[in-house]
Input
Amino acid sequence: MPNIHPARVAFAAYLAIAAAGCASMSFKGATSARPPEQPKSGPGGSDYRHADIAVDSGGTGVNAWYVFQPTRPRPASAPFVVVMHGYGDYEGYEMHEELIRHTVRKGNVVIYPRWQTGPFEPCAAGRQIEECVTSALRGVRGGLAWLQSRPSSRVQPDLARAAYFGFSFGGIITTNLTNRYATLGLPEPKVIFLDDPHDGGMGGAPEAAVDQYLTGIPATVKFVCHSSAKGIISMSGKLDHSCNAIFPKLGHIAESNKDLVMLYADDHGTPRMRSEHGVCTSTPLPKDAYDYYFCWKQFDALRSAAFDGTDERYALGDTPEHRFMGVWSDGVPVRELKIQKAAPIIPE
Output
């Protein structure tokens, strides 16, 4: 039997409770107003460049991977994106299917490392994160090698335009991988988007599994760290965890290139909009306006800002475009994002 730390069990249980709670709670809001639909254009919008995606997989066990390529039409090359799932996702890609599909149809090739096969495989605790980092690295390398092995028939990743997304424990893995990209031979991160990152509270100190210094992350990166108002930092004793622990280590990144953001719940209409841990996942929360106006919009706009020098007002800074979360069907705006340049960011 592995030496299982109770805090890891507690964190896995938290995810299970959140999923069960979302399945059982009433989603009736204060009015019958409907949430915003997906915008027709722009960051987060439905103006897709590609009508479909191709899905392939390879590797075995904790070193497995999925690759997603845009099709109809299939481009010769596309920007390179890594999407890193959170703790407790043991097979498939359901946790981030909608985010991946949107990102690929917008014109990117995505690698999804399958770095976990069970609650304690390959790592059982935050202090043992290196096994999970290694598995994720092998998944990224495996997917890249597969794409590059047939340049005439597979979309070639444009490694000069690389973006990384990481959720929860996958956000901690993403932080460490991008911090070590140069020595690991990974594409230089131009974009990093962390969604409620957390290592499970191991080791006593907040996010002890994060590298002690993060100066390996390029100073020019476009960086956003998101905390849900009902996510990790809302838990008892966790205010100094998640983004509030990571952001102070990023002093070398220009203030204009990084943001702390917070998403709030909004119960004005039906179904009400929730701000739990996992707003950018496909499960347990369904695809909704928080995907369109935050998760997808944020990631799209960060890539546009980094790769093309456009849409930065939707991606960074305390701007109306960045804060905007859409409008309920009765004309009432959805509660805006909270945006800061320094930690801590605190739920109201």
